[in-house]
C-alpha cells in the first residue's frame, strides 16, 4: 500500500528532505572541524571548556537523530510505504507532509499520541 501522491508531489517532498539532510550534514561538519581544532588547543590550556563540550554533545545528538529520522523516511520512500500513518495505516496527506516531511502519524493520531504522552508527565 502506498500513499496516493503524484510523482511531482513525491519529488517535492524528497527534495525538501535532501535539502534538510544537507544542511544538517554541513552543521555536523562544522562541529567536527571545530572540535578537532580545539583538540590541539587543549594541550596548551586545560581550562573550563566542559560546558561547551556538553552543548556540543547535545547538539550532535540532535543532528544524529534528525539524520536517522530523514534516512528512515528516505528508506520508506524507496519501499513505497512513505506517508502512511504508523498508527492507523491511513494516508497522512500531502499538506501535512509538505509542512512536516518527516511526519509519521496523521493529524488525528498525532493529537491522540500527544495527549497520551502528556498525561504521563
Ligand atoms: Zn493515523
TrEMBL record:
<protein>
    <recommendedName>
        <fullName>Zinc finger DksA/TraR C4-type domain-containing protein</fullName>
    </recommendedName>
</protein>
<dbReference type="GO" id="GO:0008270">
    <property type="term" value="F:zinc ion binding"/>
</dbReference>
<dbReference type="InterPro" id="IPR000962">
    <property type="entry name" value="Znf_DskA_TraR"/>
</dbReference>
<keyword id="KW-0863">Zinc-finger</keyword>
<feature type="domain" description="Zinc finger DksA/TraR C4-type">
    <location>
        <begin position="81"/>
        <end position="115"/>
    </location>
</feature>
<keyword id="KW-0862">Zinc</keyword>
<dbReference type="Pfam" id="PF01258">
    <property type="entry name" value="zf-dskA_traR"/>
</dbReference>
<keyword id="KW-0479">Metal-binding</keyword>
<feature type="zinc finger region" description="dksA C4-type">
    <location>
        <begin position="85"/>
        <end position="109"/>
    </location>
</feature>
Amino acid at each position: 500500500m502506498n500513499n496516493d501522491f503524484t510523482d511531482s508531489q513525491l519529488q517535492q517532498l524528497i527534495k525538501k528532505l535532501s535539502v534538510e539532510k544537507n544542511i544538517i550534514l554541513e552543521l555536523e561538519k562544522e562541529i567536527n572541524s571545530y572540535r578537532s581544532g580545539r583538540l590541539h588547543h587543549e594541550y596548551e590550556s586545560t581550562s573550563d571548556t566542559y560546558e561547551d563540550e556538553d552543548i556540543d554533545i547535545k547538539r550532535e545528538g540532535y543532528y544524529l537523530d534528525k539524520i536517522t529520522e530523514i534516512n528512515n523516511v528516505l528508506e520508506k520512500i524507496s519501499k513505497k510505504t512513505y506517508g502512511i500513518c504508523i498508527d492507523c495505516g491511513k494516508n497522512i496527506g500531502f499538506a501535512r507532509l509538505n509542512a512536516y516531511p518527516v511526519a509519521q502519524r496523521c493529524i488525528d493520531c498525532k493529537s491522540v499520541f500527544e495527549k497520551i504522552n502528556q498525561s504521563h508527565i
